[in-house]
């Protein structure tokens, strides 16, 4: 291949930039060299271990368990199709808006709300399918189900509480403030223990509340407090003059909230809310300590298999990758929503 | 520390008392009847203990603890697969039993006075299915053979557990100074030991065994002969349901008695035929045991051939043990106290009369 002079100058420019950026002074050089040696050495060791020493059988032979849990094999297509639907929805949301017809784009929020009930129908029963008990739900599928359930419960609850906290009715205001402060003052694991251990004792004899549902309820009530604060932050960013303007235009208080306050507040709060959504995926892993076989829980059960004793490093690296991939997906979805809202906001 | 504070949170006796007041003491249907009418046994297991209960690649649970569930399901329902497993952590297990979320707890639970008594957790224990005890694992290079050899050394131990207390009790009584290094999970404990942060690990011998089999060179490590505590692990049911507790108890005894008599999963049908119309026709004890004669099963509310059902499903106790903890498995634990009394162990089934 013949190098054109242009590309030559380009590469020279790159070299120049590298020198200027990384080796400008002796101190810079030292920092660069130390960082490269430390990071490179660590990475090299990790790669060396991953390729030559690690035994990935514990991951490769249990892929189904990590994704679908111990869902009955004869019904496994239901689990895969829900995960597939979810993936398709993600792709559809992430696609450039020029490619997707506007009608579909308008439907997206509804689809995101519907994906949870669809999942429950597919996984549990309904549609004439054979019922599958929730104890067969596990792995990534259960983690995602818990996350979606938590978000769908916490978001509306959080918005309502944020509004209630600014309400003019003192009792409502005190109650929500008290609730939010109580939840924020408790570690999540304590709330989860309360949900798993105390709720069954308080229920009347013969009543049982599904463990997965108990987990979603505890996670949802906890997250709602944080989301309420994020939304409240958004509400506070709106200048008072806007409310006065809305009132002078003759908008009722309800319409002021719905048309003026919330759309702006939610847009401001979006980065913080997205943060909470990612956190709520990570929070589901705490349920492994409460006997649920979500992604982390099922990994611990697999690690107890005598065939895979001592391979926890492989499993935890695989888990880190999986959680990371899902979190990246969630943050890019959030970025996408942010961009879309900002564009419409300028119109 | 986390576990400790959570325990305090979870075991609020006042709340327990309130909950039991709220439910009127009406005539209760035995769990045995409930299991039969439901057609499924709800069994609480750990699901994370090599050899006792874990997930196979196929997504089914297996292990010594789960085989007990399967045996009880076979005896009560005639089908070992009719088991609904729930994974429970140590903190949850008793609540799950008392709130009726599970029928049977088969989760390596040590039988103790306070767990048995009404003033404590209010459980009824079935016969011990595994005699465990706290042991000490050291590297062969250390040359230690007794606890005295470990004078002044550090021990890796689970924090806030009875293990830590036992270690303290025994070593203090013998005047051995030591330094405990505490960890939450077995993995952390093992890693710390392998990294040389402590000279020994102490935990239940069964758990030490599975730790050791996960090491790169298992033969470089030994478990000392000294046993620091008694840990008789037994299945448990809830207090106040004698019929159900009896059914579970005699199913477990049936597995042990079958081993004493040399009845196995492979020869059970042969034995049955022989006792029905063959060489053993006159053997009344065997005929009673297999349910051909008499009504031992129906006295318990079970089919008369409940032992046959259980042994056909999972084999006798010895077979269960060998399958999960026997020689050749990577979780091999010498039978020791867990042998039948005929071989010098502690397992001894009362007569089936």
Q: Total number of β-strand segments of chain A? A: 0
User: From the coordinates shown, what is the CATH architecture of the largest domain in chain B?
Assistant: 3-Layer(aba) Sandwich
Q: Walk across the major sheet of chain B and give the strand order.
A: 10-9-11-8-12
What percent of the residues of chain A sit in helical stretches (DSSP H or I)?
Answer: over 70%
Q: Please, how many domains of chain B?
A: 2
Supply Rg of chain B. Answer: 22 Å
| Subunit arrangement of the protein | heterodimer
Q: If you consult CATH, what is the topology of the largest domain in chain A?
A: MetI-like fold
CATH superfamily of the largest domain in chain A: MetI-like
Highest-level CATH class of the largest domain in chain A: Mainly Alpha
Beta-strand content of chain A: under 5%
How far apart lie the N and C ends of chain B?
50 Å
Write the H/E string of chain A, N to C: HHHHHHHHHHHHHH
The CATH class of the largest domain in chain B is: Alpha Beta
Shape of chain B: globular
Number of strands of chain B: 14
Instruction: Output the structural class of chain A.
Output: mainly alpha
| Low-confidence segments of chain B | 1-25
The secondary structure category of chain B is alpha/beta
Family (chain B): Belongs to the bacterial solute-binding protein 3 family.
Pfam family, one (chain B): SBP_bac_3
Keywords (chain B): Signal, Transport
InterPro entries (chain B): Bact_solute-bind_prot3 (IPR051455), Solute-binding_3/MltF_N (IPR001638)
Report on this model:
The complex is a heterodimer of chains A (347) and B (353). With 347 residues, chain A is mainly alpha-helical. Chain A folds into two domains: 5-53, no CATH class; 57-346, MetI-like (MetI-like fold). Helix content of chain A is 76%, strand content 0%. Chain A has 14 helices and no strands. Chain A is globular, with a radius of gyration of 25 Å. By secondary structure, chain B is an alpha/beta fold. Chain B folds into two domains: 31-131 and 233-270 and 297-343, D-Maltodextrin-Binding Protein, domain 2; 134-229, 3-Layer(aba) Sandwich (D-Maltodextrin-Binding Protein, domain 2), CATH 3.40.190.10. Chain B is built from 15 helices and 14 strands. Chain B has helices at residues 2-10, 13-22, 31-38, 64-77, 93-98, 113-116, 162-173, 186-194, 205-214, 242-260, 268-277, 284-289, 296-300, 306-314, 317-325; strands at residues 41-45, 54-55, 61-62, 83-87, 104-105, 123-125, 130-132, 134-139, 154-158, 179-183, 200-204, 221-223, 231-233, 236-238. In chain B, the strands form five sheets. Chain B has a five-stranded mixed beta sheet with strand order 10-9-11-8-12, sandwiched between helices. Chain B has a three-stranded parallel beta sheet with strand order 4-1-5. In chain B, helix 7 links the parallel strand 9 and strand 10 (179-183). Chain B is globular. The relative contact order of chain B is 0.14. The chains are: A mainly alpha (347), B alpha/beta (353). At the A-B interface, helix 9 and helix 13 of A face helix 1, helix 2, strand 2, strand 4 and helix 5 of B.
